[in-house]
Amino acid sequence: MTGRSEVPIGRRVAQWRVRRRLTQQGLADRLGKSKSWVDKVERGVRRLDKFSTIQDIAEVLRVDPAMLLGQQSPAAGGGVPDGLDGVRAALARYGVFQAPMRPVPEADLRRQVGHAWLSFQHGQYAQVVRVLPGLLAAVQVSSGSEHGESSVQAYRVASSVLVKLGDADLGWLTADRAVAAAGQDAVLAGTAAIVLGQLLRLAGRQRLALAATVAAAQRLVTPPHRATPGRRAQELAVGGTLLLQAARAAASGGEPEQAEALLHRAASLVDQVAAAADPQRTSFGATAVELTRVVVAVERGDLGEAVGRHELVIRRDGWRRLPAEYRGAYLVDAARAYLLAGDLAGAGRMLVAADGVAPAEVRARPSTRTLLAELARGRPEPPGVARLTTLVGLTR
């Protein structure tokens, strides 16, 4: 199986391995293979003639199997243009004086950041990618924004969408700049730590993710505090979100008891932020806690509990009030739960539902497309999956 591209599949494996900052030994360990096996694959000495093996490699590298096969470009079928070069260029100009560009007034900068976040929460990742180069450039040249909320939020939305699109390198860079821009502001630092925790979890660094998110949460939720009611609600919403991230890290790191304790702590904060605004865009609340309980149940292998909780929580009013991006991402998690439980039809329903809520969650995210490819091989094929595979450009 060599695909349609003239570039050998082994070379594409090597290119993506380097891009994901994995050594040959690191890739081998995650695949349960030897370093020699990986080396031979990359040199073309050993052929990859089983789709299941290609899919395993693609899952570790967080790309679509079709990309390894040379059957599509990174953006094919995904609904997100390959505009990341513009983002890279904007980030590369960090600290470099740009004479032609004038500082953007703070009010205009806040409006641009708000628009980017609104697009992100509606699952319009292509739109976010298009505006990021200009937004990042505006942040870098605008006086007074170097360590302000607009700067943190701009880098945070950039990191969030880059995580979605599977570009961990740029995600790390923008998350780091969000942390730096936050300075000593605990709330802003906490919002930056949210996406940092996500990146650490996706990189398989569960203990680091747990330590980072718990430390940031403790700074926000541990009394005494003398903040105004509005500020305190922000602290608790960000702190609660960090605790939910920490619970996910603990569960996937094999610490279910700690995950339960963190969930309980997060749940205890809900009533104190229930009626407050959400300027930090955390979506923290009772529904977010229950959705995390589903994910944690999946991680510890309690699939029956996970599916049961899922069926209940999506009937709540709070579910419909969550942003499209949040619901779409969660439905993909639910699809994995159904798949692990052996319910292919249920998994297919969840992906179809996710596509209806936030199409880019299914069509643009490499990890979700890999899940879709796995469902497409199921027999009988779940209803709606064939249509999705055609829409995203997957071949079977």
From TrEMBL:
Q: Which InterPro entries match?
A: Cro/C1-type_HTH, Lambda_DNA-bd_dom_sf, TPR-like_helical_dom_sf
A molecular function (GO) held by this record is: DNA binding
Stored Gene3D superfamilies: lambda repressor-like DNA-binding domains, Tetratricopeptide repeat domain
Q: Which PROSITE patterns match?
A: HTH_CROC1
- Reading the lineage from the top rank, the first entry is Bacteria
Give the Pfam families listed for this entry: HTH_31
Query: What is the official name of this protein in its record?
Result: XRE family transcriptional regulator
Source species: Micromonospora endophytica
